[in-house]
Design goal:
5-stranded mixed β-sheet, 5 strands, 27% helix
Length: 169
Amino acid sequence: MADATPPATPPATPPAVPSAGPPADAEWLALACDLAALCPPSETAFSVGAVIVAPDGTELARGHSRESDPHDHAEESALAKLRAGGVPPGTTVYSSLEPCGARKSRPRPCAELIVAAGIRRVVFAWREPSLFVEGTGDEHLRAHGVEVVELPALADRARRPNAHLLGPA
């Protein structure tokens, strides 16, 4: 019988960097969910992570809620890190939570900021609950020609850093 122990040395070829698009959506979205765990806890806002990825799989920026300001949203933080000159066509925003379509802390919601940045594809894991504002980001994005993909298989992972807001399961 062959020994099932894995080899002690890593494979000669490093793993490929995921590109943007359907095959890599779950990988990039999982990273966004992991970034949400970096958020300082808040009783008045969700903990969210976001990654902006070019069509060739290059990570352009990442951010998380309350990263540098108590009112920062994850998408807003990531968008602020983009270089001037816009984003390549086909760029995708991966967000652990549906980008907000309304907010109380700032005048422009994340869905509006994404549209203004010229990004035409958004992938998220968890639809925004109506805890603080109505979750209308999906509708706003679609109304402005943005392709929106929801991957609910990662919703539990996106909810974990927000368990203190949601109460017992």
